[in-house]
Write a structure and sequence with these properties.
Number of helices: 6
CATH superfamily of the largest domain: Winged helix-like DNA-binding domain superfamily/Winged helix DNA-binding domain
Strand content: 5-15%
């Protein structure tokens, strides 16, 4: 097997710019989120729960970028601050519904629009609306390719969901 030169391979040369773009976006976004008094993981949970009747833990885990191992601690801290509550689902003793409290919903109404407004100029500076549509399609195809490969690596058990 030969070692590929990442700099000259047309596909592999995307790795560094892709990761660098993500890291730059994450650093700037995380600083802004933290300036509003929450962590990026807490923001992610609040953003998913905001304006909803609540989600189960399983739904919330799928909807956020927070790992399952981290999610419980994030929920514990948000609950301790009075931003969310957990309720047992009547028909399923194993499932827990997570909802924002009125205080949590007020926080969502304050920080979500502020963060969206903060990020918008970066996107407008970098991309036209047409390029946004194109990039969404391309990134979607890219993600799907890796998800398909991940499913193949995990074998048939992954399809039992």
């Amino acid at each position: 097997m030969t070692i590929t030169d990442f700099k000259y391979d047309p596909y592999l040369s995307l790795l560094r710019p892709l990761v660098e773009a993500y890291l730059a976006f994450y650093r700037v976004g995380a600083r802004h989120i933290e300036s509003m008094g929450v962590t990026p993981s807490q923001f992610d949970v609040i953003a998913e729960l905001g304006g909803t009747e609540g989600l189960t833990c399983a739904e919330l885990s799928k909807a956020t970028l927070v790992t399952k191992g981290t999610l419980t601690g994030v929920l514990d801290r948000l609950e301790a601050k009075g931003f969310l509550k957990r309720e047992q689902i009547k028909d399923d003793r194993r499932a827990i519904k997570i909802q924002l409290t009125p205080q949590g919903e007020a926080l969502f109404q304050k920080i979500f629009p502020a963060h969206a407004a903060f990020l918008l100029p970066f996107f407008e500076k970098a991309l036209t609306q047409r390029e946004v549509k194109q990039l969404k399609v391309l990134l979607g195809r890219f993600r799907e390719c890796f998800e398909d490969a991940g499913n193949e690596l995990n074998g048939p058990a992954i399809h039992k969901r």
